[in-house]
Design a protein that fits this description.
CATH class of the largest domain: Alpha Beta
CATH topology of the largest domain: Nucleoside Triphosphate Pyrophosphohydrolase
Oligomer: single chain
Distance between the termini: 63 Å
Structural class: alpha+beta
Helix content: 10-25%
Number of strands: 12
Length: 269
């Protein structure tokens, strides 16, 4: 068998490689009461498909790569040009290669977790894109995720199985998200949770200045649990530095504004 015959056997022209992004951020929702408190929500950027397959369903931002591109190049391009931002965090998640991912062609996707402060963006992704606030309910062996963008609401359900010390997921109900994107979204959220307390990636979702109360809310939203104030402050003590500014208009008294400590270190070099 010559080289040409070998190549003919292993190359399939219907196989495509793609980059798909789990872009997460934090939304601010203001509660209309006498204290004017804001509530934090974990948000994800989705796009409504305008073509088949899965027309009119929501999906993650992404596209197939060309012969002269890498998945990483495309992942960066989607954020840099799609959201017109150079300030974000991005890391590779996993490669999703199930043979039935798409009804038309074989698509192998490399997924990326992207964190950004959407409140600082001055552009929209595309006309079909929307930020959805997501609420996650972990109930026995099921994960229920509610999506809400103020106009559309939907829910998906995943089955959770603990195998080899890792959670594996199976889609139980989903009429709203295309492809296997519920699984990719869950992997992105789990990665964010696992790195939250051992890295500083959360600050990529924060504004330049924030109160400790706001930062704690973000931790609580991501971890989906209430944190004790003293324990939380010990956790972030070496990560933030106070400024000489205060925030007013929320709660009963002004709150000191903080910023990520690395920014302060850079400013003083």
């Amino acid at each position: 068998m010559n080289n040409s015959e070998i190549n003919d056997n292993i190359v399939d022209s219907n196989i495509y490689v793609a980059s798909e992004l789990v872009i997460l951020s934090i939304s601010n929702k203001y509660i209309d009461n006498y204290r004017k408190l804001s509530k934090k929500e974990l948000s994800i950027l989705l796009i409504k498909r305008d073509k088949y397959p899965y027309k009119n369903l929501w999906c993650l931002p992404g596209r197939t790569i060309r012969h002269d591109e890498t998945t990483e190049n495309v992942a960066r391009e989607i954020v840099t040009y799609g959201l017109n931002s150079s300030t974000y965090y991005q890391e590779q998640l996993y490669t999703f290669d199930s043979v039935d991912r798409s009804p038309l062609n074989r698509i192998i996707s490399t997924a990326y977790l992207t964190l950004i402060d959407k409140n600082s963006l001055n552009t929209t992704f595309t006309k079909n894109a929307s930020w959805f606030d997501i609420n996650i309910l972990d109930k026995n062996n099921q994960i229920i995720i509610d999506f809400d963008n103020g106009e559309e609401q939907f829910t998906i359900t995943l089955e959770k199985n603990n195998k080899d010390s890792e959670f594996k997921y199976k889609i139980i109900s989903n009429d709203f998200l295309a492809f296997d994107h519920p699984l990719i979204i869950m992997e992105g959220i789990n990665r964010l949770k696992s790195e939250l307390e051992i890295t500083d990636i959360v600050f990529n979702m924060m504004p330049p200045k924030f109160t400790l109360g706001e930062l704690q809310q973000v931790y609580e939203v991501i971890l989906n649990k209430k944190l004790l104030d003293p324990a939380f402050r010990r956790t972030i003590a070496n990560k933030v530095v106070s400024t000489d500014e205060v925030k007013t208009g929320e709660g009963h008294r002004p709150s000191i504004l903080y910023k990520y400590k690395e920014i302060d270190d850079i400013d003083n070099e």
